Every structure is written in structure tokens, then in C-alpha cells.
Backbone:
């Protein structure tokens, strides 16, 4: 009986010891892991009372990505910035990260080498630029720009052309006027619109698509050849329609600047001439931004307006 009692006591002590150890481990984990994570989250959510900005968990990732870029590891650095956008979208570094990503993407796209998702195409007998653009779902202006062409003719079989797949779409935030160029659903470059004025009957969110594009030579009023010098100064416009509808819904252009008028001492100079006319509706971009976006959109490209 005494031995049985001792065994029971020993078993009881073992159970108590295991339970106490488990509790101790749980307390340690809570104090050293969970409470630490909660404290960091609290610090991020609540600015310090001494006026200092809250800690930025994305800053370290931003610095690492920039170090890679400066060290010549461009692709790895850009992917590091993309990772920052995904994991820490509220980091103060995201604006600069987007700017750097956009510039790197454009550099790759227009580099005279097979980079940035371009395709190397060998000209075949009977080819012309228009047929190539139609066949490969791209545009004349993008072919001319990426290949530095100065003429629509003169192609020879065996010539190499870089083709840009037109897999770009736009997302326009009506509240912030931020215009985001997306490529296959991934951030490519960001712009800030000068103004966005929609028609009163347009409901947001709105799913639109590119209906037509035009580049008009202001000298003669005719369509500008994409390989001509006049194309750079041409008045470019992108007309949008609702998907599966021929009706025009919105136009992307630069602002209509008021014409200069003689100013006398009794007539004050006009104000806000860089803004579109108050009656005009459309998405108005800076000229240099429209120049970048124009060749990357084609008929059918998606343009979504969100709130």
C-alpha cells in the first residue's frame, strides 16, 4: 500500500511539473513574442506622444532594394521594390518606390535590346508596318518609337523589329486623380492627372475601353505620321467608350489652354490658363505624361475609373 501511495504521489508530482512547465513556456512565449508583436503593431498604429513619426517597417526593405540597384543588380532591386509595395503599401517609401519602378520599367521597355517584355520579330517578305502591327496586336506608334524608325517604308526581309505586346491598361482614381498604368495586372508606372471631369450621368466605378486614338498635326490638321517629326508635337487624344458600346464616354487629352489675348492696363491677365475649360469633360494629363501613355494603349485597352 505504501509503495502504491508513493507511486501515486510521484505520478502527481510529474503531472504537476509538466503542467507547470507548459504554463511557464506559454508565459514566456506571450511575454517575448506575442507581446513584442503587439507592441510593434501598437507603435505603428499610434504615433508617439513626443511628436516623432511612427516606425516604418518598410524603410529597411526600401534601403535594401536601393542598395541592390546601386550595386548593379537592377532586376533584383526592382523586385525588392515590388515586394515593398505588396507587403507594406502604407509605408511612406512607397511613393518613391513607385517612381523608381516606373522609370526602370520605361527604360527597359524602350531599350534597344530584348528586354522589358518586348519581342524580337524578323521581317518577312511582303511585310509592312501596318500589317505587322495588326497581326501582333500592337500599334504603329509603339513600333516606331521602340525601334527609332524615321519612315513607314523601307523594311527589308530579315530586318529585326522589337514589338511591344499591348497588354497595358489604365486605372484612374477619381478621388486622388492618380492614373496607374498596369501591365497584365501588375503596377507599371503612375501619373497624376491635372484634372478629371466626368459627365454627370457617368456612374463610378466605370468600366471603359479605348475606342479610338488620334494624333493631329496642328499645322495642317491632318493625321500625323508616327515616324515624322510632326508626331511629337501632334495633338494626341484617346477617346474612351463603355465596353461593348460605340458611344463616347470620356476623352484623354492635354488641357485646352486659353488662347493669348491682348492685355491692357484695364484688363487683368487670365487666371488658371493651364487648367481645362470649366465646361470641358475628360481626363486631362500633362503633355509629357500623355506622350508616355499614348503609344502603350490600343483599341480595346481597358480603362477603369474607381472612387
Residues:
Amino acid at each position: 500500500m505504501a509503495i502504491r501511495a508513493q507511486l501515486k504521489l510521484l505520478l502527481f508530482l510529474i503531472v504537476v511539473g509538466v503542467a507547470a512547465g507548459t504554463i511557464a513556456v506559454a508565459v514566456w512565449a506571450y511575454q517575448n513574442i506575442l507581446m513584442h508583436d503587439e507592441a510593434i503593431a501598437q507603435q505603428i498604429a499610434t504615433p508617439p506622444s513626443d511628436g516623432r513619426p511612427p516606425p516604418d517597417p518598410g524603410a529597411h526593405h526600401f534601403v535594401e532594394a536601393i542598395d541592390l540597384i546601386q550595386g548593379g543588380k537592377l532586376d533584383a532591386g526592382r523586385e525588392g521594390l515590388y515586394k515593398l509595395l505588396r507587403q507594406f503599401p502604407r509605408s511612406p517609401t512607397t511613393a518613391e518606390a513607385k517612381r523608381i519602378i516606373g522609370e526602370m520599367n520605361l527604360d527597359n521597355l524602350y531599350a534597344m535590346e530584348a528586354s522589358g517584355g518586348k519581342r524580337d520579330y524578323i521581317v518577312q517578305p511582303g511585310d509592312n508596318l501596318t500589317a505587322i502591327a495588326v497581326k501582333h496586336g500592337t500599334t504603329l506608334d509603339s513600333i516606331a518609337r521602340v525601334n527609332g524608325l524615321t519612315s513607314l517604308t523601307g523594311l527589308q526581309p530579315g530586318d529585326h523589329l522589337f514589338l511591344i505586346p499591348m497588354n497595358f491598361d489604365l486605372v484612374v482614381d477619381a478621388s486622388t486623380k492618380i492614373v496607374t498604368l498596369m501591365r497584365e495586372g501588375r503596377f507599371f508606372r503612375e501619373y497624376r492627372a491635372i484634372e478629371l471631369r466626368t459627365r454627370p450621368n457617368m456612374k463610378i466605378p466605370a468600366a471603359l475601353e479605348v475606342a479610338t486614338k488620334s494624333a493631329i498635326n496642328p499645322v495642317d490638321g491632318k493625321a500625323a505620321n508616327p515616324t515624322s517629326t510632326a508626331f511629337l508635337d501632334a495633338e494626341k487624344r484617346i477617346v474612351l467608350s463603355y465596353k461593348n458600346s460605340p458611344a463616347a464616354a470620356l476623352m484623354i487629352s492635354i488641357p485646352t489652354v486659353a488662347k493669348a489675348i491682348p492685355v491692357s492696363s484695364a484688363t487683368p491677365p487670365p487666371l488658371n490658363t493651364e487648367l481645362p475649360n470649366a465646361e470641358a469633360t475628360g481626363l486631362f494629363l500633362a503633355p509629357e505624361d500623355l506622350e508616355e501613355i499614348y503609344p502603350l494603349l490600343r483599341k480595346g485597352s481597358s480603362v477603369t475609373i474607381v472612387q
About this structure: Helices lie at 2-45, 59-70, 74-87, 94-110, 129-135, 140-147, 230-233, 287-293. The chain is about 35% helix and 20% strand.
